[in-house]
Amino acid sequence: MLVHSRTGKWATWAVFFLLFVPLFALPLLVIVAASFTTNWSGAFPSGPTTEHYRAATSGDSLQALTTSLITAVGASLLALTIGSWAALAAATLRRRGKRFLDGLFMLPVAVPSVVVGLAVLVAFSKPPMLLNGTRWIVILAHTILVTAFAYQSVSAATLRLDPMYEQAAASLGARPSYVLWRIKLPLLLPSLTAAAGLCFALSMGELSATMMLYPPDWTPLPVQIFAATDRGSLFTGAAVAVVLMGTTLLVLLAVSRIRTKASYR
After folding, report:
1. Nearest CA to 72 among 242, 204, 183?
2. Which of 34, 77, 104, 142 has the largest count of CB atoms under 10 Å?
3. What whole-number distance in Å separates Cα of residue 27 and Cα of residue 244?
4. Are 208 and 117 in contact (CB under 8 A)?
């Protein structure tokens, strides 16, 4: 849109592909190629096969995918609820109060996720909140890690809302709860769905904190990928990684469609 000449457009596309393909597309294409091969000793893979996908979509890998989906959905819903509530509350505070909430919710992403995992492990390994060794400690850690993104997304959208809608409703005698549920939240729906998608994607790929917390019966898919590659099953790990990418993309596409429909209402 900003480049009008034909030469400039071609140059822009050329620069884009020169940067995009080596930095982003090529590594992903290598993973996809590795998932269909039995040997890679030269410049190109050899021995095409689909056996790795049988292992990636059955047994422990299928269970790990289910675990990741449940964890990501649970963490996303919790993060969206907590982050949205905090963002709406922060919009009513003065500058100091809002800065405090901003810092509080951004703290988990300001430190390495392994630190968050250690903090959760220490905090919830003794009564009265004994969660160590259960699935709930993994979901809790993921929630803590992704809530900041939900908070920031909804907080930014709240600042862009036109206050005239709320003022008009209030002038007609609408109660604050009615204004929230029937006016403010519907206007925030596109941002809420975008935040949910982002939280889901981040939770699906989280590894560092999860490695410190997961019990044997609650192994998410990124841990399964790490375990496969660690024992030398690189091609099987690549197939599992492709399954993880594909599942995440499908969910994000579904969320994107919901967001698009919400935007046109």
Report:
1. 204
2. 142
3. 15
4. yes
